[in-house]
Write a structure and sequence with these properties.
This protein has about 130 residues and is an all-alpha fold. It is about 80% helix and about 0% strand. The protein contains three helices and no strands. The mean pLDDT is about 85.
């Protein structure tokens, strides 16, 4: 009874888990080392006939047709890309012209207001009697 109580309170569960894992690992290693031979009852034979000249010519003609159509598509795509690039450049130049025109109009307006400002200030000060 004392032995059972001592074991129940002082058991090192980590040690027990390590021993169980070591035994399981040894069992798996032993199972992997067993020599197993697999017999193939009927060997696999792959046979095929090479393509004839007619099939090769047909496939070559199909590939050539595809290459020609892809080259034509590529040419059309390049033309479209060039046209789109020109359109984007022209739109950017037009936008820049509009921006510069707007900036120039605002600059002229502010310039006019600044040149009138001293005369208006003198007139305001004279009207208020601040200067004679």
């Amino acid at each position: 009874m004392i032995l059972a109580e001592t074991l129940a309170t002082n058991i090192n569960w980590t040690l027990i888990a390590t021993i169980v894992m070591a035994l399981a690992t040894a069992g798996m290693w032993y199972d992997a080392k067993k020599c197993r031979v697999t017999q193939i009852e009927q060997p696999l034979n792959v046979t095929g006939t090479p393509l004839g000249n007619a099939e090769i010519q047909r496939d070559l003609k199909a590939m050539n047709h595809r290459i020609v159509s892809l080259e034509a598509w590529r040419g059309q795509l390049l033309n479209k890309l060039d046209a789109d690039k020109s359109e984007v450049i022209e739109a950017g130049e037009e936008r820049a012209r509009r921006i510069y025109t707007h900036v120039e109009d605002v600059r002229k307006e502010i310039d006019n207001k600044i040149t009138r400002l001293p005369n208006e200030l003198v007139a305001l000060l004279k009207n208020t009697g601040a200067i004679d």
